[in-house]
Write a structure and sequence with these properties.
Largest sheet: 5 strands, mixed
Order of helices and strands: HHEHEEHEHEHEHEEHHEH
Number of strands: 9
CATH topology of the largest domain: D-Maltodextrin-Binding Protein, domain 2
Shape: globular
Number of domains: 2
CATH architecture of the largest domain: 3-Layer(aba) Sandwich
Radius of gyration: 19 Å
CATH superfamily of the largest domain: Bordetella uptake gene, domain 1
Strand content: 15-25%
Distance between the termini: 24 Å
């Protein structure tokens, strides 16, 4: 687990590995090795013995890192097993910003050059890529403000220090319910079942703006194909488990599996998309 305990991918992985362990009749230990936007833990697994006993949980940042960092591994050092879940991101806006729709948020940015900023959990994170893409596609300069955790983002968006953030619903949605924050759009192709009044980015005025983060499972290059296929098949069963689905959906996460080939295609497609955003925005890890 290349992220700290409590992160979204940590939650997804622990819930799913609990069920996968039952199906495989194996003990599965989740070991957190955070750092460098997941690059530390990823390098650890890339160097591991390819025997099927050391696996890597990844987020969409896996497709971003090669464009930002000099890494101690190459993307081809790991092979895809399956997607685990989709992570739709809501666009949360501070109450201090006079905008209740995406159009109003962008109009505020046009009328107040240089004053529209957005938070993220770090350079290269999905929240960063979403904010950068919104800035580029709207033609409105927006300042990226990276943070080290959601708690700090929450404090500053409630106070108006930052204008908006793209994030999953867990931390921020309760404050929307209390009227302390606004959710004006969601980055997925469909509206969220429990938030039917929040439009998609497309519905809010951005055709083709469908950027959904994801979590998945990978293995070191050279892991026997039979093991990879078995794990992929078992995950396809786990994501349909009613308990797994209920626990993840409550956290704003959608359990989803894929074949290794489908997951490889997703990584390649998103890597190209993120690479374009990074080049267009002249984004660096410094």
């Amino acid at each position: 687990m290349p992220y700290p305990p409590g992160a979204a991918t940590d939650t997804i992985t622990r819930i799913m590995m609990e069920k996968l362990a039952q199906r495989l009749a194996q003990t599965i230990i989740v070991e957190n090795k955070g750092g460098a936007n997941s690059a530390v833990g990823t390098a650890y697994v890339a160097r591991a013995e390819p025997d099927g006993y050391t696996l890597l949980s990844v987020l969409a940042a896996y497709a971003v890192n090669p464009h930002l960092h000099k890494m101690a591994y190459q993307p081809e050092d790991l092979i895809p097993i399956s997607k685990l879940a989709d992570l739709p991101n809501f666009l949360f806006v501070s109450n201090r910003i006079p905008a209740n729709t995406l159009d109003e948020l962008l109009e505020y940015g046009r009328r107040n050059p240089g004053k529209l900023n957005y938070a993220s959990s770090g350079t290269g994170s999905s929240a960063h890529m979403l904010g950068a893409s919104l800035s580029q596609r709207s033609g409105i300069p927006m300042q990226h403000v990276p943070y080290k955790g959601s708690a700090l983002v929450l404090t500053d968006i409630l106070s108006g220090e930052v204008a908006f953030v793209f994030s999953s619903m867990v931390v921020f949605m309760p404050h929307v319910k209390e009227g302390r924050l606004k959710a004006i759009a969601i980055s997925s192709p469909q509206r969220w079942p429990t938030e039917p009044n929040t439009p998609t980015m497309e519905e809010a005025g951005f055709p083709g703006f469908n950027m959904v983060s994801w979590a998945g499972l990978m293995a070191p290059k050279g892991t026997p194909p039979a093991i990879v296929e078995r794990l992929s098949r078992e995950i396809a069963v786990v994501v349909k488990d009613p308990e797994v689905r209920e626990r993840l959906m409550k956290g704003g996460l959608v359990p989803e599996s894929s074949s290794p080939e489908e997951f490889a295609a997703l990584i390649a497609r998103d890597s190209a998309m993120y690479g374009e955003i990074i080049r267009a925005g002249k984004i660096s890890a410094d």
